[in-house]
Amino acid sequence: MSTKSVRSVDRAVDIVLAFIDSPVMGIGELQQRLELPRPTLYRMLAALEQKGLLSWFGDPRRYRLGHKVLELSRSWQRSFDLVEISQPVLERLWQACDETVMLFVPNPPHGRMLVHEIRSSKPLNYSRPIGYVAPLTIGAAGKVMLAFASDDEVRRACEGLTDNERRKLQTDIQRVRKDRYFAASGEVLAGAMSVAAPLFGHDAEVLGAVAVVGPEMRMNGAVRERLLPQLIQATQEISRAAGYAGA
Questions:
Q1: pLDDT digits (tens, 9 = 90+) for 167-197
Q2: pTM listed for this prediction
Q3: Could you count the other beta carbons within 10 Å of the beta carbon of residue 223?
Q4: Every domain of the chain and the residues it spans
Q5: Contacts 24+ apart (CB under 8 A), 174-179
Q6: What would the pLDDT profile of 79-129 be if each residue is shown by its tens digit?
Q7: CATH class for the domain made up of 3-76
Q8: Could you confirm whether domain 80-241 is CATH 3.40.50.300?
Q9: Cα dist from 181 to 24, 90, 118, 120, 129, whole Å
Q10: Helix or strand or coil: residue 120?
């Protein structure tokens, strides 16, 4: 491909990406944003419209993304498999800590489901069967998922809790929102400690959580401090692979 052709492709991609922040734009706004000569911009817009990547309406013309972008999005969603993209990252995390690594996804309306697990090779370990379901209101994995749900979802999840349980959960949620992880001891399994961090998708929705689970006597302060950067790095890597562009 010639240098001129590569430059044309770059310009076309820049035009399409410009609509991420501004769903509808006119010629003047596009030209100001992209700093392209008007004849070049008109030519690129016509080509993108012909391919279904852009459409226009009104007089003067206003442009927006076309139907082919939706088809591309649906194709990406069909190809997306959280377990598949997570597995190599979770393997590295497991090799670094040799404690049980768990991957949870939402289980509506107010639960979470275990969809993948790599069990510790140590004689004393904790494990759950694939398909295991637990509420979002207990355990590190549940709380890091609930913390980034809507206020209405949090309110509904709290129904049935005592006042003390609700106050403690709200305190834990605030801590998760500040720290972006949570450690819980004995909330689901007696003698077990779990440390979890959330996973996010392309529109910042919560896709699930990764948790590392081990005996309290092994998951002490020093071990937990060494584990945390590895856990955070793993969840950030998976989130990026899922299309998340945040921090």
A1: 999 999 999 999 999 999 999 988 999 999 9
A2: 0.72
A3: 16
A4: 3-76, 80-241
A5: 176/143, 176/144, 176/147, 176/148, 177/147, 177/148
A6: 568 999 999 999 999 999 999 999 999 988 889 999 999 999 999 999 999
A7: mainly alpha
A8: no
A9: 37, 16, 20, 21, 24
A10: coil
